[in-house]
Amino acid sequence: MSSSSSYKQFAHLRIPLEEIVSGTTNFSDANLIRESAFGKAYKGHLFRSEQQIDIVAERLDRKHGYGDVEFWKEISMLSSLKHENLVSIIGFCEEKDEKIIIYKDKVNGSLDKLLRDPTFTWMRRLQICVGVAHALSYIHYDKRRDFSVIHRDIRSSKILLDDHWEAKLSGFELSISQKAARRNRLCLIDVRGMRGYCDPTYVKSGSVTHKSDMYYFGVLLFEVLFGKKAVMVNEVNRLLAPLAISHYEGGRLDDMIDPVLWKQMDPQSFKIFSEIAYYCLKKQRSQRPNIDQIVMKLEKALESQQKHENPAYSTVEGIASKTLKISSWRCRVLFYKDGYTPVANEKIHRGRSESTSPLYPAPPPAFSHGAV
Fold this sequence. Notes:
Distance between the termini: 30 Å
Strand content: 15-25%
Shape: globular
């Protein structure tokens, strides 16, 4: 898609540079809220339909390798994808060598800023992770859409939080789309993305699938669990993913968790959450769960935590956790280690799992809609 054709296609989203400059006080440093590979983002406001709205203006900076392709990709994706757990685009500006994308402001900022906050509860962390999982389920597969999307850049700084702490997935500059009928096929593409998050198979082979997004998401889940970023700068740039794997396999996850957070956790909620995060990081893509399995597991972890904090809680239709309407067998089939083998019933003790007996029958072929 050329720049000129893109401009015509999205002309209705165009916002004059003069309005953006005024709304951000000429991109004042006082309004700077974050800086990413795309560029600097500024808070501000615009007037629409005689009402003032709070906005974030993200200004493209080419020094990190982002350019026209990524700029128009973000606009194209967010103008065609609509979901309660995706960030909303207001418009864009392409004037005087400036390329700026305007989003609705999310008053609680990005998830990465809250990871180490001791007041950021386990319940809230779970709710946010469930929201992100729903966003990924939507972009990976939606029967009303003839294309599927692989995000390729899922990380905590890309998760924005609104005034109700609802998660909003952003950052589609590196995303790729493919026909829904071809969604189970490999895509060969140049390796891009942030160190510490990238699927190792993608880095090695240059091929990406929806299961690559599951690796990114697994890193994000461990960021939420440990309260640490994917690259731990204060620990000589150690990567979180291999550390998480070794602690899970050694039954020492609690050594990495803030004691305040650990005390809040329902044991079953912790077990379910940590297991799904671990399997997302499996080296072989075929061993990683599909997004539908992840959604069910995380909702189960949230439900268990809700029962733990409120014994009177009961799972009925319409509860705040937004449990999917699924058949009774699907409620029981939560996760399969290799896609076929039933998970054993497990007892948990300080992060250790002890297998006892098989619990669930294998699901029918229609259960999974993800790439292998």
